[in-house]
Specification:
Number of domains: 2
Largest sheet: 3 strands, mixed
CATH class of the largest domain: Mainly Alpha
Oligomer: single chain
Distance between the termini: 65 Å
Radius of gyration: 23 Å
Order of helices and strands: HHHHHHHHHEEEHHHHHHHHHHH
Number of strands: 3
Mean pLDDT: 94
CATH architecture of the largest domain: Orthogonal Bundle
Bound molecules: zinc ion
Shape: globular
Structural class: mainly alpha
CATH topology of the largest domain: Neurolysin, domain 3
Low-confidence stretches: none
Length: 501
């Protein structure tokens, strides 16, 4: 017998999902094709739709329906029961934020994004500062409205990585930063540095684009349910669950691996979003279980697979078709070594695996200090530059290459950065098990065959959507808690052999 209340719930959630997908489409357009003067009205449109989505989702009718259903969870079939409990969690949480607050925040985000673009182009933090000050105040108010124990930062993390706390992250990151800094120092001091003489050439953007599209297709990204475009800050946007999942990339004439990395990275995110079960479409279950888990998917493809020697044994001939003159005498080993070169770099999205988490820890510490009231927005450029020197041993020449480089703060994403580092840890834990379950994985990669890997990820991670939390998935796969051991095993193994440590 069909449950009428569940049907009513699914219908309502479907409508809300439609509005949210439309917001996502507007955001995608804003960052890809919208002309510059469209910014102000786009901010209003997004604010209006966000308010509508929020009102629909927090309506008392939906609340009554959810509470009624949750009173008899044990009578529901397991799919419906998890849908009710996850939606009720979101509903209760969203109701803590008043409509006016949500509308004002969305409007401020739109303006802040436009200001950030100009500030970054001119490398003038002052243009962005008043917007960021307002956004930080919004975050503090948000934390109070949501409620928290310990640090106000905990209220914000919960949106991205449920169950994680500032206190636990401080512990994990303290350990990470120490071990990674040591590794970076050993690698940078090693006499065995990669040969990059062949690398310093012009790389046609059209050819880079064609190569990236080929790799995407091989990974299993469904181009009938997605597309790739250019954007200043690459991202993945899901417009309709699995049926319209778009990615973006940016091209650099001096570095063909920059575009490839972002294409494969966003492709990894998109594969997750294309992998939910049809029965979950248009519900909150058709979503990555956490940002850290999402990032584990992108990082696994980007770093573990597309920065491996077997990958280049397969793809060098393909890349050589795109760049016959530049790659005439280059070997897979040279590409592998060049692509895994380690340097003390300024830009997070271009950072290598060895330095990456240090970029995250710097941002995490600044965010915590802002939220806990230990740092003023006006002092960000200075503290940023001090920390870059401390962690990465590098001088920051200007704010565009420093505190203005990331889009996140203009979109009021506080608490998001730590999930990038967690993604690395989850990916390494998963990969350890993948090598056990698929012993000939590297042979498949060397053939350009990613089907066994994708099926494994679909089965162990993607199909669950939000049914299981990130730690639960990691425990189920590995029998262990989320941690950093597998990550260091992977990192030290790879870079130890690359740099002869
Ligand atoms: Zn990502």
């Amino acid at each position: 017998m069909k449950n009428k209340q569940i049907e009513a719930l699914r219908e309502r959630l479907g409508e809300i999902s439609d509005v949210r997908s439309t917001i996502s489409l507007l955001h995608w357009d804003q960052q890809t094709y919208m002309p510059p003067k469209g910014g102000a009205s786009r901010a209003r449109q997004q604010a209006t739709l966000s308010t509508i989505a929020h009102q629909m989702f927090t309506s008392p009718e939906l609340g009554t329906l959810l509470h009624r259903l949750s009173d008899s969870l044990e009578k529901l079939d397991p799919d419906d029961a998890v849908l009710v409990s996850e939606t009720l969690y979101d509903h209760d949480r969203a109701r803590k934020l008043p409509d006016g607050f949500v509308r004002d925040l969305a409007e401020e985000e739109g303006k802040a994004f436009e200001a950030w673009k100009e500030a970054r182009a001119k490398s003038e933090f002052g243009l962005f500062r008043p917007h960021l000050e307002r956004l930080v105040e919004f975050q503090k108010r948000k934390a109070e409205l949501l409620g928290f124990e310990g640090s106000p930062y905990n209220a914000l993390i919960e949106d991205y990585e449920r169950g994680m706390t500032a206190e636990r992250l401080k512990g994990i990151f303290g350990d990470l930063s120490r071990r990674q800094s040591e590794l970076v120092n050993r690698v940078v001091d090693s006499p065995r540095q990669p040969d990059l003489t062949w690398f310093d050439q012009e790389w046609d953007e059209g050819a880079q684009w064609r190569f990236g599209m080929r790799v995407l297709k091989d990974m299993g990204y469904d181009l009938e349910a997605g597309r790739q475009d250019k954007a200043l800050h690459p991202f993945t946007a899901s417009m309709a669950d699995v049926e319209d999942v778009r990615i973006t990339t940016r091209l650099d004439r001096r570095d063909p691996f920059s575009a490839l990395s972002s294409t494969v990275h966003e492709g990894g995110h998109a594969l997750y979003d294309q992998g939910y079960q049809p029965k979950d479409w248009r519900t909150p279950l058709a979503r990555g279980t956490s940002m850290g888990m999402h990032e584990s998917q992108s990082r696994l493809w980007e770093n573990t697979i597309a920065r491996s020697l077997p990958f280049w044994k397969h793809y060098l001939p393909v890349l050589r078709d795109c760049f016959p003159a530049q790659l005439e005498r280059v070997t897979p080993e040279q590409i592998y070594r060049a692509q895994n070169r380690v340097k003390r770099s300024l830009i997070r999205v271009e950072a290598d695996e060895c330095t990456y988490n240090l970029h995250i820890i710097l941002r995490f510490e600044i965010e915590i200090a802002l939220l806990e009231g230990d740092l003023k927005v006006a002092d960000i450029p200075e503290i940023w530059n001090v920390k870059m020197k401390k962690y990465l041993g590098i001088e920051v020449p200007d704010d565009a290459h420093g505190c203005l480089q990331d889009v996140h703060w203009s979109s009021a994403c506080f608490g998001y950065f730590p999930t990038y580092a967690l993604g690395n840890l989850y990916a390494a834990q998963m990969f350890e098990k993948i090598l056990v379950d698929i012993p000939d994985l590297w042979d498949h990669v060397e053939q350009g065959n990613f089907r066994p890997l994708l099926s494994w990820l679909r089965d162990k991670v993607h199909r669950h959507g939000r049914r299981r939390r990130a730690p639960e998935i990691i425990r189920e796969i590995t029998g262990k808690e989320p941690g950093s051991e597998a990550y260091f095993w992977y990192l030290e193994g790879k870079y130890g052999s690359l740099y002869g440590l």
